[in-house]
Design brief:
The chain has about 400 residues and is α/β, with parallel strands linked by helices. It folds into three domains: about 55 residues, no CATH class; about 170 residues, P-loop containing nucleotide triphosphate hydrolases (Rossmann fold), CATH 3.40.50.300; about 130 residues. It is about 55% helix and about 5% strand. A six-stranded mixed β-sheet has the order 1-3-4-5-2-6, sandwiched between helices. It is globular and about 70 Å long.
Length: about 400
């Protein structure tokens, strides 16, 4: 039996409870499968690994933050947020640690970065040996719906600290000098208490000072912001979020120790998101992969919205909550959307047979014809015919010709 020696090692590590050894042997098997060109088997192993990761991420542990590292008074529900003196509008809202939030799902690089930041607060003594502190400032940027704000909540929750969220509508004022004063008051409040300060829609406050479209007031605002970011370094954790990183003043970037770009999820992350958003429905792996393949390039928020529509459509159709029913519901949901930039989604919305022709001819989509048949309800013989016909090519060419 091929790879049997590695499988033996996996079994031994599992029976011995050696998690590190188990992980090492599984990776060894994955490498061998890929070298042997056994892509379908390698894909199956990756799915199992991701399922294990999902289970761990659903119950994130909180970090015990040393009071010596985060100074300040304790925020309570009775604490009044600062307000704009002219309008009375609150400059921030406060969320306290409490109900467990579901952990975000990221690609590997982003997940390791965020976990690395939390690990810094878990092991501050290791950092003290080299005379550095845990990261206190983080700038997160990326397209809308990618999970940036959710990440801020996740970090605050794991640090077990209140999240002070700046309200842009309260901070920005039409009165000359008031916006700068509001920013100063917000930071004074955040510095007084032990908390995480979240500056969402950060580009509204930190635009380039040489932008010809902006009035002179923006220079005063950005200067005040930079000064207060410098002063906050010794007080607490600050997270800024923006969808428009190109609009930020260059000096702003230097005020943040770590920059994290969160983009659209890749195939691996999309699969995990689809599984989460389809709950309590638990489709087979092939069905989940087909949905993720069809929705590549969409944000996490888009995936959630479409999965919710799939569940509504499926519930009202009266069909079984299995592969074929879900596949038909997905096709119906996509057909109702106004447009599609992604070819697979466009094909499924207009011609499901052409979509099946596409996935059977895509060598990167490692699902067997038998699995596709079970997931779509289309017979294996018809799937074989569709694979040979290259129907998707003709449909896509006709679409481009219009």
């Amino acid at each position: 039996m091929e790879h049997f020696s590695v499988i033996q090692s996996i079994i031994r590590s599992g029976l011995a409870g050696d998690q590190d050894g188990l992980d090492k042997q599984v990776q060894r098997l994955l490498t061998r499968l890929e070298k042997a060109g056994q892509t379908k088997e390698a894909t199956t192993v990756r799915r199992l690994l991701q399922s294990a990761t999902d289970t761990k991420e659903l119950t994130p542990s909180r970090v015990e933050v040393s009071r010596a590292m985060i100074t300040g008074e304790v925020l309570t529900p009775d604490t009044n947020p600062p307000i704009d003196r002219e309008t009375g509008a609150q400059l921030c809202t406060i969320e306290f640690p409490g109900a467990q939030r579901t952990a975000p799902i990221y690609e590997v690089d982003v997940r390791e970065t965020i976990q690395g930041l939390l690990d810094e607060w878990t092991h501050p003594e290791a950092l003290r040996c080299v005379e550095v502190d845990p990261t206190r400032s983080l700038l997160i940027f990326g397209p809308p719906g990618s999970g940036k704000t959710m990440t801020a909540y996740h970090i605050a929750q794991n640090l077990n600290l209140p999240l002070v969220m700046a309200r842009i509508d309260g901070l920005i004022s039409s009165f000359l000098g008031t916006t700068a004063r509001n920013i100063a008051n917000l930071f004074e409040f955040a510095n007084r208490y032990a908390c995480v300060l979240l500056l969402d829609e950060f580009d509204a406050l930190a635009k380039q000072r040489d932008d010809p479209q902006e009035i002179g007031e923006i220079k005063r605002v950005v200067n005040t912001l930079l000064q207060n970011l410098d002063l906050r370094r010794d007080h607490g954790v600050t997270i800024a979020i923006t969808n428009h990183d190109r609009l930020l003043d260059p000096a702003v970037w230097r005020r943040f120790e770590t920059h994290v770009h969160i983009g659209e999820p890749n195939m691996e992350a999309s699969i995990r998101l689809v599984k989460r958003f389809l709950l309590p429905i638990k489709p087979d792996e092939a069905t989940v992969s087909i949905i993720a393949y069809c929705l590549q390039g969409r944000s996490g928020a888009d995936l959630q919205r479409i999965c919710t529509s799939i569940k509504r459509t499926l519930a009202l159709s009266g069909k079984e909550h299995s592969g074929p029913g879900i596949f038909q519901a997905l096709s119906a949901v996509l057909a109702r959307l106004p447009s599609h930039d992604h070819a697979p989604a466009k094909l499924l919305a207009t011609d499901p047979d052409a979509f099946v022709s596409l996935i059977t001819n895509d060598n990167h989509f490692a699902i067997s014809q038998l699995e596709i048949a079970a997931a779509t309800g289309i017979s294996k013989s018809k799937i074989s015919e569709l694979k040979k016909s290259n129907r998707h090519v003709a449909v896509m060419e006709a679409s481009h010709a219009k």
